[in-house]
Amino acid sequence: MAYEHIKFTTDEGIATVTLNRPDKLNAWTRIMEREVRDAMEAAEKDDSVRVIILTGEGRGFCAGADMNLLSGIEDGSEKREAGAVYGTKAYNVAVRSDFQTQYSYFPSISKPIIGAINGPAAGLGMVISLYCDMRFASREAVFMTAFAKRGLIAEHGISWMLPRLIGHSAALDLLLSSRKVTAEEALRLGLVNQVYDAEDLMPAVKVYATDLAQNVSPRSMAVMKRQVYDAQFLSLSEAVAIGNEEMIKSFASEDFKEGVAHFLEKRPAKFTGR
């Protein structure tokens, strides 16, 4: 389908979703919200796609909610639209309800989602970046929660995600102060995985994504992603039991047989995801 506020491409096993309002630093709109979800669902259903990259066009990743969207909250129109469109939508009945809300559905996508944070990620833009499975940042990137300086609170699950990434005290620091965090500080905090010069960001992300797409079992990635997110709600013994059960299933999979065969035969893998 044609998109207004994003670009969506697929190439060699990689789907790239690009927020595309560069003149507004890719400020988030309801149109963008619907289109990102549609693109994520399309990538999930496409067997040729192994990895998803989410990034922004131009100088910014996402500067947060568009001010017109925020203004709509005051008269109730924005709340009514959000509730009507997203309040009861279930993305995937096979995953936890925690990962089926308006913005928390990224973990329900079985394929890894890599955030290529090319510029400012503020407010809702920062929330979206946290739901990516990993984040690679440009040195031009800055992170800011922004909520406290708008009279708002820790929204859309950031109070759950942020402490798990950087710890309780550091999360409160970023939430309460709404201060800007550079890419280098974000790396020290554990908010991002790697930092690159601006011109090297997308090439580096694509090298990483290509390795996953070509050399790693899609089945293994899907199971591991689900294990890691679900384990945050489990005891150690429960996580061990699930791991043992999944290992038995892995032994019976085509990808396990191929994993052994390509290693012994010293050739590139030909994983099917089955």
UniProtKB/TrEMBL annotation:
GO terms for molecular function: enoyl-CoA hydratase activity. The keyword Lyase applies. Its EC number is 4.2.1.17. Keywords: Lyase. It comes from the Bacteria. It is an enzyme of class 4 (lyase). It holds the Pfam family ECH_1. PANTHER family: ENOYL-COA HYDRATASE_ISOMERASE FAMILY PROTEIN (AFU_ORTHOLOGUE AFUA_1G01890) (PTHR43684:SF4), PTHR43684. Belongs to the enoyl-CoA hydratase/isomerase family. This is Enoyl-CoA hydratase.
